Amino acid sequence: MSTTGTSKYKSEYARGYEAHGKAEALVMILEARGLMISEGDRAPVLECTDQDQLDIWIKQAAFVAAADDLFG
Question: Which of 28, 43, 35, 24 is nearest to 69 (CA)?
Answer without folding.
Answer: 35
